[in-house]
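Bit of a strange request maybe. I'm writing a small parser for structure token strings and I need a real example to test against, not something I typed by hand. Could someone generate the tokens for this chain?
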Amino acid sequence: MHGSRQAPGRLRIIAGRLRGSKLSVPDAPGLRPTPERVRETLFNWLAPTIDGAHCLDLYAGTGALGLEALSRGAAHCVFVERDAALARALADTLARLKVDTGEVVRGDALSWLAQAGERRFDLVFVDPPFDADAWQATLHALEQGGRLALGAWIHVEASAEQAPAPPANWHLHREGRAGSVRHRLYRRDPAPAPA
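Reply from user aminoacidic:
Good idea to test on real output. This should exercise your parser:
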């Protein structure tokens, strides 16, 4: 969620029970909310799988991706955001929209992924600040850390020049481009790798 800036109040939830809800876009360095066109395309791709999904929104920023998932029927979303002001604003947004199925974790995404955790996620959004160059480390930390359910979906947003290489057991499902942003949706193997 983190490049060009957008005016506060310009972001909205596209569909579902929170449709039309406004999200504030703070003036924060590196914050680059996922464009509406990309969100619409992504959630069209995910429509058959979103209901009841457990989601992880890494580098959450405004939380637009995780909130869109919750609006469309996801069961729960963990939002991980390092910036204290953005994490606070996201918690305020969840409270304002009366969303009790979201949990905000203030912390660094890679550090959080390195901690032992029992929860497995069906859908993960990976959208680090473009200048952080954190894609490769994040994709491999997700796979190595045991945070992904079998058959999980992973959405990766990067600049058009970046082409992060996913782990071998992730398969490209769909990809698209909007301006300088390329987004890819991967599917993790639905069966464990042979021993």
